[in-house]
Each structure stands twice: as C-alpha cells, then as structure tokens.
Specification:
mainly alpha, transmembrane, membrane, transmembrane helix
Length: about 70
C-alpha cells in the first residue's frame, strides 16, 4: 500500500513533467509554425482588419461558412 507521501511525490513529478512537456511542445511546434505563418503573411484568425475597416467587430451574418 502506498503512503500519502508517495502520492504527493507522484503528483509533484506529474505536474513537473506536464509543465516541461507543454513547454517543449510549444517551443518545437507552435513557435516555428507561427513564425512561418507570419513570414508568409497569413492571418488564420483574421486578427488584422482590412484597410477600409474601422472596427474589429465581425457581424455573425457576414462570417465565412466552414
């Protein structure tokens, strides 16, 4: 039977591993993908307004259908 201290240690190791794994995943996959998209001039989230747009508001009737 495992004691309470063993469970606490397992929880701490799990949290540390998850934090490290998330950071590694972000650095290896997310950052390079974002850099390539930025260099290519892509805006997949449509965050930049058009030159004649005065607001960031997007009316739900005019959204693109997926």
């Amino acid at each position: 039977m495992t004691g309470r201290s063993d469970r606490t240690r397992e929880l701490m190791v799990t949290q540390a591993f998850n934090t490290i794994w998330t950071a590694v995943f972000f650095v290896i996959f997310i950052i390079p993908t974002a850099m390539v998209l930025r260099v290519a001039g892509k805006d997949p989230l449509n965050l930049r307004p058009g030159p004649q747009t005065s607001t960031y508001w997007v009316d739900c009737r005019h959204r693109r259908q997926s």
